[in-house]
# Entry
Amino acid sequence: MNELGNISREGLWSNNPALVQMLGLCPLLAVSTSIVSALALGLVTIFVLTLSNLVISAFRSVLADSIRLPAQIMVIATFVTLADILLQYWFFELHQRIGLFVALIVTNCTLLGRAEAFASRNRVGYALVDGLSMGLGFALVLLAMGAVREILGQGTLFNNLDLLFGAGFTDWRIQLVDNGFLFMLLPPGAFITLGFMIALKNRLTLPRRDQFSENENSQKENRSQNSSPRI
# Structure
């Protein structure tokens, strides 16, 4: 149970694919202009990463080293294609907005990295938790960026949520201000938002690092004092 907790914590926080590993930034920066787009891509990423980890881990013992990487790419591409078809079938208008970036998930280093570094070396249960936590960690960063950029760029929140959940969510749109800053919807706004999020994450983890460094220095001092010759 502790091992599963450590795996989940790595994906959600300590080794977050977006904030720590800096992987998958192309769709992250391009799609995070609104909550609905960020949520849709986040759900697709969770779907593909979890199922591809599951399949790759299940067949890890029968894959030779010479075909392991091509097989992993084929598995990921299969699930990406399936997700793209389902998104196009059920949410066509939303697919028109983010469909290009769904296809780019095949080249997302997060998926291939987890498949090679974790799923191909661990049993199914661990691989499943790893894929789910890494995908959820990536999706949470997407949602946070989508919320910030939608509020500052459009002055709204939950705009076009009906594209994902149906006509019943049309009234969920909240108009916070009349006009936003167009700059936040452009690529520079995405980079600045991500930079502030990375800085915040590092700031929250900095006290622990400082405490660890102080403890390590104190231990070194104690060892040096104990090892010094006595007269």
User: Anything to note?
Assistant: Confidence is low (pLDDT under 50) at residues 227-231. Residues 2-220 form one domain. The chain has one domain: 2-220. The first strand starts at residue 156 and ends at 157.
